Amino acid sequence: MEIGFVYKWTNLINNKYYIGSHKGKITDKYIGSGLIFRNAIKKYGINNFERTFLYSGVDFRIQEEKILKKLNVANNLNCYNLKNEALGGTFFGKENGMFGKHLSEKSKALISKHSHMKTKKGKLAHSIAMTGKGNGMYGRTHTDFSKNKFRNTMKRLKENWGFLKSTRHHKAIFYNIYARLKRWGNETSPRGMKTLEIENFGVTIPPYVRFCNFESRKLKVGYIKTELRWYLKSDPYDTSIIEHATLWKGMINKDGLINSNYGPYIFGKLNQFDSVIKELTNDKDSRRAVIMILQPYHILNDGEVDVPCTFGLSFRIRKNKLNMTVKMRSQDSYFGLGSDIPIFSIIHEMIYIMLKEKYPELEYGEYYHFVESFHIYERHFKFLKELGKSSKYSLVLCPKISGPEEVKMIRSLDYSNVPENYKFLHWLLS
Fold first, then answer.
1. How far, in Å, CA of 313 to CA of 293, rounded?
2. What are the C-alpha distances in Å from 261 to residues 84, 310, 340?
3. For residue 395, what are the contacts with CB-CB under 8 A and spacing of at least 6?
4. Which residue pairs from 95-101 have beta carbons closer than 8 angstroms and sit at least 24 positions apart in sequence?
5. Axis crossing angle, helix 144-158 with helix 35-44, rounded to the nearest 10
6. Does 154 have pLDDT greater than 60?
7. What is the C-alpha separation between 230 and 261, in angstroms, rounded?
8. In the chain, which segments carry CATH 3.30.572.10?
9. Which one of 231, 328, 374, 420 has the largest count of C-beta atoms within 10 Å of its C-beta?
C-alpha cells in the first residue's frame, strides 16, 4: 500500500505557492517537480520558500486533486501550478498540442541531433535546420488553448518584477561608481589610514536601484533590513544595532547617544518625514522639503565621538516626478554606500507613496547622491582592483510598497498582523 503526503511550498517574498504530492514519508527531502515552481526556486533560492503539509496517508493523490480543483489553481496567477489535476508534467488528451499527431521522420532526425547542442557548432547547425520549412510550426498556428497557456505561463515567470528592469541595469550603476573611483581616485592618508578618494562625487540613481550586490562585495541584505528597522524605532539611545555590527560600539557618546542613528532625525520628535510631506502638499514647487541630519553641535561639541556622515535629504517635485537629493560630507564606498543607498532610496519611496494621495499622477523620480569625500580604505583595494565588467552581480528582489496604508503600518512598528498584500513589509521583516 502506497503512503504519501500533500505539501504546499510558499514563496516568502511574493506569497505565491505550489501544491504537490509525493509517495514517501514527510521526512523525505523531496521538493517538487512543477516546471514554473522549479524555475522560481532557481530565481529566489529554496531558502526563500516555506513548506507545510496538507495531508498524509494512502489517498494522497486524490486529496491533492481535490485541493487543486477547490482552489482552481490553473486559473490562479498567485499559484505556480499549471493544472487542476494531480498528474504532473504534461497535458493529456485533446488538451495536448500533439493529440492525434505524429512526429515526421525529419522532426525525429532533428531531435536526435540535440545531443550536439552543447557546442557552438551544434547550436548553429540546429538553428539553420530549424528555419523555414525545417521548423515544426511552419505553416501552422497555435490553438487558442495553447496561446492562453503560454500567456499565463509568462505572467507567472515575470513575477511582477518588471519595475526592477534588468540585472544589467542595476549592475551598470554600481560598476560605474567603482570604475570612476578606481580611475579618478587620489591616494590620501587621513589619520594614517591609506584611502583612495574622489572629492565632490556625484551619481544619479534611478528608481528601485538600491543594492550593490556583487559576489565579491558580500552585501548583507539582512543587516540593511535591520538597520532600517532600527531607524524606524527612532530611539537615539537604542544600542541594539551593536549586536548586528560591532563598528557601532565605538560610536556611542558619553551620554549614550549614537548620533549616526538617522531615525530620530527622520521619524523622531521633530518628525521631519511628515514635515516634507506637508511642505510639498501645501506647495508643489517648494524647495524647503528638507530632512536635516548633521547639526552644528555634532561638530562644535568636543565630547561627540560620532559625527553623522550625512548632511541631509531634500525632495522636489519637478516635471511631475518626486526627486530626492542626498548630500554627505563623507562616505566609505564599501560599507557605507552598501547600506546608505538602499535605506535612503526606500525613504524616498515612502514619501513618494504618501504624496500620491495628493498627486495621483506623481511619478517616482531620480535619486541624486552627492559626497564631499567619497573613498575606499586600503583593506578593500583588492575588491576595487578585481572588480570588472565580468564580475558577478545578483539582483535583490525588494518589492514595491503597496500604498499609504502600508507606509503607515511600517512606521507604526505594530507588525502583529501584517496583511498578505503588504509584500514590502513582509520582505522587511524576513
1. 8
2. 52, 11, 12
3. 164, 167, 170, 211, 213
4. 95/145, 97/142, 97/143, 97/146
5. 20
6. no
7. 8
8. 162-398
9. 374
Residue 128's pLDDT is 76
Closest CA to 10 of 81, 100, 64: 81
Cell 532625525 sits on residue? 265
In whole angstroms, give the CA distance from residue 73 to residue 82: 7
Is it true that domain 4-93 has CATH number 3.40.1440.10?
A: yes
Range 219-241 burial, b when 16+ CB lie within 10 A, else e: bebeebbbbbbbbbbbebebbeb
pLDDT band at 304 (very low <50, low <70, confident <90, very high): confident
Which range has the worst mean pLDDT, 3-12, 346-355, 359-368? 3-12
Amino acid symbol at 225:
K
pLDDT at 132 over 90: no
Concatenated DSSP letters of 289-324: -EEE---HHHHH-TT-S---SEEEEEEEEETTEEEE
Q: Is 426 left (phi over 0), alpha (psi -120 to 50) or beta?
A: alpha
Average per-residue pLDDT in the chain? 89
CATH no., domain 162-398: 3.30.572.10
pLDDT tens per residue across span 354-396: 999 999 999 999 999 999 999 999 999 999 999 988 899 999 9
Residue 344 CA to residue 210 CA, distance in Å, equals: 9
- According to DSSP, residue 75 is labeled G
Give dist(CA 153, CA 136) in Å, integer.
21
45 band by pLDDT with thresholds 50, 70 and 90 = confident
**Residue 304 in contact with residue 346, Cβ under 8 Å?**
no
**Dist. CA 197–CA 201, nearest whole Å:** 9
Instruction: For the chain, give every residue range classified as CATH 3.40.1440.10.
Output: 4-93
CB 415 within 8 A of CB 428: no
Lay out the sheet containing 49-57: strands in order across. 17-23, 4-11, 49-57
How much of the chain is helix, strand and coil, in % rounded to 5? 45, 20, 40
The pLDDT score that the predictor gives to residue 312 is 98
Identify which has the larger pLDDT, 112 or 274: 274
Residue type (1 letter), 102: H
pLDDT tier for residue 124 given thresholds of 50, 70 and 90: confident
**Cα separation, 43 vs 319, whole angstroms:** 36
Give the Cα separation of 166 and 208 in Å (integer): 11
